[in-house]
């Protein structure tokens, strides 16, 4: 291929990959200023928003009503830095600096308060909320038994993959639907699969940058991992091989993605549809994308419309399908929740 033809192909691809701005079908202001973290409940009815310098709020999405307002400590509310739900939807969790509180969804009351000696970076709850997996600022991830109030396993990312003599920070965590496995992503550019029974590492996958997002495919057999300003991949757990890379660019699959910034992206939020056929991703670039899970083919991408020319960026913090997969909900760092009718 000549250099001229290559340049034409690249320019064409870049232009075709541009996502058009789209107005949401409906939107709600879920934060007075901005939000630091957000998560949707498993049933898609609620969103938990961690406000900046304010209590976390559980919203009923369609009714646009605050169900509960939660803060971890008495007195002035701090920033809620991480939020999560148990898979059965009965327990919610909020984290402020070094403290986690588990809340009962049925009545909004605190169930237990857990304090740790270092800052909490990320967290995931087990199916019933009786275990929590925490990424901590001390370069560990701890699997914690809430009922017995004890650390069950400590997981670490050594610095060997990046030539560092010390363990690396862990940025993202997930617990498998079965509760038997953990997935972690770190600054060592690795995503790692662990047995929560033995604490042994089962798989590891190398990226080209710090891994910032990890998730289990709900139907089993696969995991999704992504690195900041790099790529997001779908891996076969049994073989350890990559099934595909999510390609926002329209460059044909038989052409390797060039090592160029325009072909890289950061995925900041994901959700699988209840039918397990579709995947929705959110990105810091105001972009939302819908994908076929079986093939990794992109169905469509669009961008959240700008609200201010002085604050053009919007980070998608959480995305979720409605129960019947006809609607997607998104939550952005500007404190705005939005509803999008799917056109697939």
What helical percentage do the residues reach? Answer: under 10%
Strand order of the largest sheet: 1-26-25-24-23
Q: Would you tell me the structural class of the helices and strands?
A: mainly beta
Q: How can the largest sheet be summarized?
A: 5 strands, mixed
What is the CA–CA distance across the termini?
35 Å
Please explain how this structure is put together:
The protein has 344 residues and is mainly beta. It has a domain at 31-108. 4% of the residues lie in helices and 47% in strands. It contains 1 helix and 29 strands. Strands 1-26-25-24-23 form a 5-stranded mixed β-sheet, with no helix packed on it. Strand 19 (211-216) and strand 20 form a beta hairpin. The longest helix has 15 residues, at 3-17. It starts with a helix and ends with a strand. The model is unreliable at 1-18 (pLDDT under 50).
């Amino acid at each position: 291929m000549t250099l001229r033809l290559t340049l034409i192909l690249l320019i064409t691809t870049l232009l075709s990959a541009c996502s058009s701005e789209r107005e949401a079908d409906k939107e709600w202001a879920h934060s007075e200023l901005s939000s630091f973290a957000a998560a949707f409940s498993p049933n898609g009815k609620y969103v938990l928003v961690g406000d900046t310098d304010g209590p976390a709020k559980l919203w009923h999405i369609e009714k646009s009503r605050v169900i509960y307002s939660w803060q971890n400590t008495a007195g002035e509310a701090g920033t809620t830095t991480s939020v999560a739900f148990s898979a059965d939807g009965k327990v919610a969790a909020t984290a402020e600096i070094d403290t986690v509180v588990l809340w009962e969804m049925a009545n909004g009351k605190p169930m237990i308060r857990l304090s740790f000696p270092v800052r909490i970076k990320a967290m995931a709850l087990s199916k019933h909320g009786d275990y929590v997996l925490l990424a901590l600022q001390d370069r560990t991830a701890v699997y914690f038994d809430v009922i017995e109030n004890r650390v069950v396993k400590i997981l670490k990312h050594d610095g060997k993959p990046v030539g560092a003599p010390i363990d690396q920070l862990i940025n993202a965590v997930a617990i498998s639907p079965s509760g038997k496995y953990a997935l972690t992503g770190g600054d060592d550019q690795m995503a790692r699969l662990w047995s929560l029974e033995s604490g042994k590492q089962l798989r590891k996958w190398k990226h080209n940058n710090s891994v910032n997002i990890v998730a289990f495919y709900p139907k089993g057999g696969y995991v999704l991992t992504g690195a900041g300003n790099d790529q997001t991949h779908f891996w076969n757990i049994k073989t350890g091989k990559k099934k595909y890379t999510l390609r926002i660019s329209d460059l044909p699959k038989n052409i390797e993605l060039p090592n160029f910034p325009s072909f890289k992206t950061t995925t900041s939020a994901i959700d699988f549809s209840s039918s397990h056929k579709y995947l929705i991703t959110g990105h810091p670039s105001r972009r939302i994308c819908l994908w076929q899970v079986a093939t990794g083919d992109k169905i469509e991408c669009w961008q959240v419309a700008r609200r201010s020319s002085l604050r053009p960026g919007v980070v998608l913090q959480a995305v979720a399908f409605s129960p019947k997969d006809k609607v997607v909900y998104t939550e952005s760092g500007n404190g705005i929740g939005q509803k999008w009718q799917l056109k697939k």
